[in-house]
Amino acid sequence: MAAYISRRLLMLIPVLIGMTLITFSIVHLIPGNPAQTILGESATETAIKNLEESMGLNKPYPIQYSIYVTDLLQGDLGTSLRSKAPISKEIWPYIAATFELTLFAMIFAVVIGVNAGIISAWKQNSWFDFLAMLVALIGVSMPIFWLALMEQWIFAQELGWLPAYGRQNNRDPMEAITHFYVLDAMLHLDFSRIIGILKHLILPSIALGTIPMAIIARMTRSSMLEVMKSDYIRTVRAKGAGQFLVIYKHALKNAMIPVLTVIGLQTGVLLGGAILTETIFSWPGIGRYIYEAINYRDYPVIQSGILVVAFIFVIINLIVDLLYTYIDPRVKY
Amino acid sequence: MKHKFLFFYVFGLAVLLVLAACNDSSNNDDPAAEAEGNDVEAADGGVLVFARGGDSESLDPGSTTDGESSRVTRQILEGLLEFDKESFDLKPGLAHDWDVSEDGLTYTFQLEEGVKFHDGTDFNAEAVKINFERWADPDHEYAFSDAGYVYSMYGTMFGGFKGDEDHVIEEINVLGDHEIEFKLSQPLGFFLQNMGMTYFSITSPKALEEYGAEINEHPVGTGPFKFVSWQKDDSIVVEKFEDYRKEGLPKLDQVIFEVIPDNAARLIALKAGEIDIMDGLNPDDAAGVEADENLQLYTRAENNFGYVGFNVEKAPLDIKEVRQAINHAIDRQAIADALYAGYANPAVNPLPPGYLGYNDEVPGYDYDLDKAKALLKEAGFEDGLEIELWTMPVARPYMPDPETVSQIVQNNLAEVGIDIKIVREEWAPYLEKTMEGEHQMYMLGWSGTNGDPDYFLSSLLHGSNIGTSNRSFYANDEVDKLLDAAKLSVDQDERADFYKQAQALISEDSPMVTLVHSTPVMATTNQVKNYVPHPSTSESLEEVVLSK
Fold it and tell me: Looking at the DSSP assignment, which residues form a beta bridge with residue B345?
């Protein structure tokens, strides 16, 4: 196990080098002078020269790259052109916002998706099965921005049940501690705030969780159907176990292996920042951070943001691989 | 038995979900109501939420040119002068009186006494001097050049920085605690106008000392509201400054600037009562807002214009008749209606109406295909010709949909036998190549900042700006002389006259097709009173009240 983990960690090195090469190239692949792009139509020549110098754009590529990597190794993600603040300090609230949203979206997706998948497999070809799979099909095909706007329109504008945007009561924002707002509200010991923050999480979590929910439901169903046909299930049945026990105790664990892969991948995707959901619900997450940086042509933020997201994705994959051993003891490394 | 299990399992899940959703909705009925924990009763006080599409870039006003930044800093800091509520007319700010010497080289300001910065220190002439020197001198201890601070608006408006040949502010003398004098190297017609700009607001010297290069996240001024917190890409909170110099102001307790990037989502939040003012309404949604009895529609006065420019050095656009013909062939009204839902006016001059010296006697070019054809015939192009049009790759307030504009222009010109070939470039090469003159026709626009005509006319059409902001390569000695004279004069009537003459000459030469001045639309709930949008996009919210 330890050997496997260290081997996996070693394999991260070439992946990370590849990632830095890609993020480094971003600035140079866009046509035209980056300094001119950043400064826009009313830029003066001196302003362009100064910016080139401060960004180190006048040095040869290999030297620029080595400076870039050296800084990264020292934990220096660069300085945002927009805010002039160090990215390593600035990025945390965005990551926390995305983590919180992803967590709730995935809870929604897994609870609904796995259970719908199980019931569909259990009651194969029943009306529930058809309905659930139809919903799943609609779920994967639905444009997220449309779903999000419909949610806002119905639940915020027409019914007034849930807030339309943001992470917390906008007229009375609290002081952030960890930037995980649910946790922060708990630390403030403010119960009504916790409720308020959870309310803000509902609509974006559903919008964001719908596609993973649909994918998980379909995957669970097919995986369950396969497992249910295996010999050991027949044996369990022969021993007289009830349907519920068969499914939740014996079949589910084995059926979960491919589902777990999907859950891991989807979590990684969501953590990459859901630009559409984050934009429509005005959720200041990592996707918005990178998106705003693209608008502003804030290259250091684009580079570091992508690098951080890629890094998180790789780590999530590693965790999923390690979880296999827990779910299925036959898996040995 | 087994069915029972399933039933309980599913039922349990459902109950949990419903509980999670219902529990809170029974506690607080609507999101707006949950806000009023603080004791808000009468018209005064209350928390106003102002939602816009993007976050501020910096809360240090001098180091940014971003409108979303000055919208916020306008509440926190003040300059020596202020613009009038709805126009660029000047009124007293931190200076209550001012004098200009006969030769236009010395400006003396009498400053308000007893004014405090939010950090409790006194506002005085020394503070003004430190701020101006900080912008002018990259080596100043508070310039923070190493941290990437550039004061480009200062450079643009005052002819450069310390040591530059055209830099106009030669010295700043503190004559007394509340009297300050600016000595200029040459007269500058719009010097006072600059003093009204939010970008030149005064920061507390103590705060500059204390926060250093992080001053962009800790603004400290003398304005009606003081800074509380800033959550990036989310919200900026400012609260009432109790010691504000104007008695009884501000009315509100708090203003929260929220970022809601999506225009449709922002409108939903407004209708749901979660926000009070929204900027950046889609022109197409304006009719819906007008019809809604809970909402109010506002328009900002026009302060920009979009245009299709000619490179007057490239054949066949070096022939005046061709340029005039194209001007007659483009249907401005159709563009205004199609792209701005009517919230734009066809432009005659390269200057927004309402500006000093706007010439409303210039006839402009009416949409007249016969005249266009006649002019083309006169120039010898009755059999048609082919011209390249470079399309802007990004949207701007003055040009929200450049692609469609270029197609309308293409269709319009096809009717008079001009075959337009559309050229697409990325933004940076677009700007660079048009600066170097590789193009024939191109699209761009300009937005006002200090409310002075010089910023439009000289930047875009003065011969000395060829190779930089004059992408039409237009140079007319007479126009240049008029613009120079207007820039050097401090007599505003005389200046107006010079600009009027210049506009007439420019219109005759036809170096560009002035398309439209857009009037941005925005909306508020009915509770918002005394709100007046300013053409600069930055208005003080000190008098705004929320009614019940």
Answer: B517
For residue B528, the surrounding DSSP H or E stretch is strand B528-529
Within B60-139, strands assigned E span 81-83, 90-92, 95-100, 106-111
How many Cβ pairs within 8 Å bridge chains A and B?
191
Looking at the fold, whether B247 and B357 belong to one and the same domain comes out as: no
Amino acid at A8: R
Q: What SS3 class is residue B97?
A: strand
Q: Tokens 């061709």, residue?
A: B322
CA distance B180 to chain A (A): 30
Residue in A32, A45, A149 nearest the CB of B264: A149
Residue B242 lies in a domain: yes
Contact B426 A288 (CB under 8 A): no
Interval A91-143: pLDDT, tens: 999 999 999 999 999 999 999 999 999 999 988 889 999 999 998 899 888 88
Number of domains forming the structure of chain A: 2
Maximum Cα interatomic distance, chain B, rounded to a whole number of Å: 102
Which of A29, A39, A84 is the best mutation test for B, with the most CBs of B within 10 A? A84
- Flag if A166 and B47 touch (Cβ within 8 Å): no
Which domain, by its residues, includes A245? 93-332
Give the three-state DSSP class for B282.
Answer: coil
Instruction: Report CB contact under 8 Å: A81, B148.
Output: yes
Listed residues A64, A89, A114: the one ending a domain: A89
- B395 and B528 in a single domain? The answer is no
The CATH number assigned to the domain holding A156 equals 1.10.3720.10
Residue B97 sits in a domain whose CATH number is: 3.40.190.10
Q: Give B444's strand partners.
A: B307
Residues in A touching B272 (Cβ below 8 Å) = 156-157, 160, 163-164
- Residue B430's SS3 state is helix
Buried b (16+ CB within 10 A) or exposed e, B48-85: bbbbbebbbbbbbbbbbbbbbbbbbbbbbbbbbbbbee
Which of A160-164, A328-332, B349-353 comes out lowest in average pLDDT? A328-332
Per-residue CA distances from A13 to A16, A116, A215, A315 (Å):
5, 39, 31, 12
The reply to whether B143 and B18 lie within a common domain is yes
CA distance B276 to A170: 11
| For range A146-171, the mean pLDDT | 90
- The number of residues in chain B equals 548
Does A45 share its domain with A69? Answer: yes
DSSP β-bridge partners for residue B545: B529
Q: Each residue of A259-280: b (16+ CB within 10 Å) or e? A: bbbbbbbbbbbbbbbbbbbbbb
The maximal CA–CA distance of chain A, rounded, in angstroms, is 84
Token code pair at residue B315: 């054949």
Rounded to the nearest integer, the mean pLDDT of chain B is 88
For B85-134, what is each residue's pLDDT tens digit?
A: 988 999 999 999 999 999 999 999 999 999 999 999 999 999 999 999 99
Q: What is the pLDDT of residues B147-203, one digit of tens each?
A: 778 888 898 889 889 888 889 999 999 999 999 999 999 999 899 999 999 999 999
Query: Which residue in chain B is spatially nearest to A152 when comparing CA positions?
Result: B268
How many C-beta atoms surround the C-beta of residue B4 within 10 A? 9
Yes or no, beta carbons of A83 and B232 under 8 Å apart? yes
Cβ density class A118-150: b for 16+ within 10 Å, e for less: bbbbbeeeeeebeebbeebeebeebebbebbbe
Contact B152, B123 (CB under 8 A): no
Non-local (6+) Cβ contacts of A127 within 8 A are: none
- B322 with B333, same domain? yes
Co-location of A168 and A311 in the same domain: yes
Select from B198, B194, B193, B187 the least CA-distant residue to B223.
B198
- Does residue B500 share a domain with residue B527? no
